[in-house]
Specification:
By secondary structure, the protein is mainly beta. It has helices spanning 35-42, 169-172, and strands at residues 4-8, 15-19, 22-24, 27-29, 49-55, 61-67, 75-81, 83-90, 101-107, 112-116, 120-126, 131-137, 146-148. The strands form 3 sheets. The chain has a 6-stranded antiparallel beta sheet, with no helix packed on it. Strands 9-8-11-6-13 form a 5-stranded antiparallel beta sheet, with no helix packed on it. A hairpin with a 2-residue loop joins strand 3 (22-24) and strand 4 (27-29). The protein starts with a strand and ends in a 14-residue tail after the last helix.
Length: 186
């Protein structure tokens, strides 16, 4: 039995995985990751780091984070508890969808994972209290490679579903894009 169904989004390389739990009267078993089945999406890279986050308040926005090459990463983002509006922004220089964004609702109930490839910024808004996310990264975090976009940047015009009630001081301080931002090299 195939445990995953893959759906392309309007942004090339950004994929949605529908997981297929197997259940009975006791509950269910769900595969979150399989290197064999996800090898094509990971382009031969292994998972190097796994992170788990808790976002306490509905309406909170985190992100939009990315790492510069050569430390760019692919992320597999899964919601384990609650529901989030998960957003990826295409930062690839020369891409026909440069600075376009795409959002998906991820929840514990809908069994979806968003695959955010290298060259994208990532963030989310908690749609419920106490949201827990699991991130699988193909590259370990490097502080010297980290960067971010401001989630409220008017050039991006992200349509956050709820009023934003909280962002970290660090995320609020990220500058808006200017004409000098040409994107990321592959």
């Amino acid at each position: 039995m195939n445990r995953f169904t893959f759906t392309a989004t309007p942004l090339q390389g950004l994929m949605l995985i529908q997981r297929h739990p197997i259940g009975d009267q006791r509950g269910y078993l769900e595969r979150l990751f399989c290197s064999d089945e996800l090898a094509a999406l990971l382009a031969g890279r292994a998972v190097a780091q796994i992170n788990h986050t808790l976002t306490a308040k509905q309406g909170t926005v985190r992100g939009l984070h990315f790492q510069h090459p050569p430390h760019a990463e692919t992320k597999l983002v899964t919601c384990l508890k609650g529901e989030v509006f998960d957003v990826a922004v295409d930062l690839r220089r020369g891409s026909p969808t440069f600075l376009h964004w795409h959002g998906e609702r991820l929840s514990a109930d809908n069994h979806r994972t968003l695959v955010v490839p290298e060259g994208f910024a990532h963030g989310f808004q908690a749609l419920t209290d106490d949201c827990e996310l699991l991130y699988l990264h193909t590259t370990a975090y490097r502080a010297d490679a980290e960067a971010a976009l401001n989630a409220l940047d008017p050039r991006l015009t992200i349509d956050w579903p709820l009023p934003i009630i909280e962002r970290s001081a660090r995320d609020q301080a990220h500058p808006w894009l200017d004409d000098g931002f040409l994107g990321l090299d592959s």
